[in-house]
Design a protein that fits this description.
Layout (H helix, E strand, L loop, with lengths): L3 H13 L6 H12 L4 E2 H6 L6 H13 L3 E6 L3 E6 L6 E6 L5 E5 L4 H11 L10 E3 L2 H11 L1
Parallel strand pairs: 4-6
Antiparallel strand pairs: 1-3, 2-3, 4-5
């Protein structure tokens, strides 16, 4: 079930920016507000049979550009979307073996972000792309196979 407060907050944000709240935009917001998993554009479109697939893609792009939703690029998985304000700010880890995506508090990366900015002047956006590694389950499987 969609988090109606989050949807209405996003709708208010759109209206405050002078943007239209089309049926497609509302439908996409409702799918993201109800999501319990990471959703890419295909999974959003799959839940919206009444909205043309191309419209879903354009809607996701425009909502991201307007700052109503956030997106994270995950290797070999495209882009995943979240409704801003629904969840705490988080970063993503992706297992290079099984492709699992794990959320972590973005604050865990603050020391790295501060050091990179201090030493290079570069400002990281740690919630914009997943960090690759190998998850605990895959590491355990590999260790047991090596024995």
């Amino acid at each position: 079930m969609a988090d109606e407060r989050a949807v209405e907050s996003a709708v208010a944000q759109l209206r405050a920016a002078g943007e239209r709240v089309t049926p497609a935009r509302r439908a996409v917001l409702e799918v993201l507000a109800a999501a319990e998993a990471h959703l890419d554009a295909e999974r959003v479109a799959g839940q919206l049979e009444q909205v043309h697939r191309a419209t879903v893609y354009r809607t996701l792009q425009s909502l991201a550009e307007l700052g109503v939703i956030s997106h994270t690029h995950v290797p070999d998985g495209g882009t995943i979307y979240h409704l801003r304000g629904r969840e705490h700010a988080h970063a993503h880890l992706q297992c290079a073996r099984c492709q699992a995506v794990v959320d972590i508090p973005v604050q865990w990366l603050d020391p790295l972000r501060a050091r990179v900015e201090r030493e290079t002047g570069f400002l990281l956006a740690p919630d914009h792309a997943a960090l690759l590694g190998v998850c605990a389950d895959c590491r355990a499987r590999e260790a047991s196979m090596a024995q």
